[in-house]
Amino acid sequence: MNLARRAAQDRERERLRTGGADASGANTVTVKKNVVKIGRPGYKITKIRDPNTKQQGLLFQLEFSEIGPDVVPRYRFMSAFEQKVDLPHDRRFQYLLVAAEPYETCGFKIEAKEIDQRRFFDYYDKDTKEYFLQVLFKK
Fold first, then answer.
1. pLDDT digits (tens, 9 = 90+) for 78-131
2. How far apart (Å, rounded) are the C-alpha atoms in residues 90 and 81?
3. Number of domains the chain contains
4. Residues 57-69 pLDDT 10s
5. In angstroms, rounded to a whole number, what is the distance separating the alpha carbons of residues 137 and 56?
6. Are 91 and 80 in contact (CB under 8 A)?
7. Same-domain status, 20 and 67
8. Are 70 and 87 spatial neighbours (Cβ–Cβ below 8 Å)?
């Protein structure tokens, strides 16, 4: 039993020493890109309400005028307990993060209501380089 465990540890050390190549020969080491950040994108936030369901929500419009042709903006929702910028943690809020290189990541502090995933909408227009996020909250 000890010999099998020792052999597994030796294989793991050897794999780490050789740069992370696995059995298929593919390199598993990820390289971090060094990109110079050029500031925050322009944005506009609008309160919206669906006239049929009476759901309230927010519409985010972000303008990425200097974004590369093959880069698509990404978003992420973050709870108040995950973030480290706004202390102390307030459970009444959550954060919407939007990122696209070469811009800095934008964070928006929104209410911690449950988001209606069926009505959530995001769209990136490559021609105008605008990114739209529509968030509707459940009642």
1. 988 887 887 888 889 999 999 998 899 999 999 999 999 999 999 999 999 999
2. 8
3. 2
4. 999 999 999 898 8
5. 6
6. yes
7. no
8. no
Q: Is the pTM of this model over 0.85?
A: no
Residues 126 and 91 in one domain: yes
| HSE-up (13 A, CA, CB side) for residue 4 | 1
Q: Name the 3-class secondary structure at 41.
A: coil
34 is a domain residue: no
- Residues 96-110: tens digit of each pLDDT: 999 998 899 999 999
Site of tokens 């490559």 = 126
37: in domain: no
Structure tokens, 54: 């009476």
Q: If DSSP states are collapsed to H, E and C, what string results for 48-113?
A: EECCCCCCEEEEEEEECCCCCCCCCCEEEEEECCCCCCCCCCCCCEEEEEEECCCCCCEEEEEECC
Residues 62, 11 within the same domain: no
Range of the domain at 3: 1-29
4 pLDDT band, cuts 50/70/90, is confident
| Unique residue bearing structure tokens 């459940």 | 138
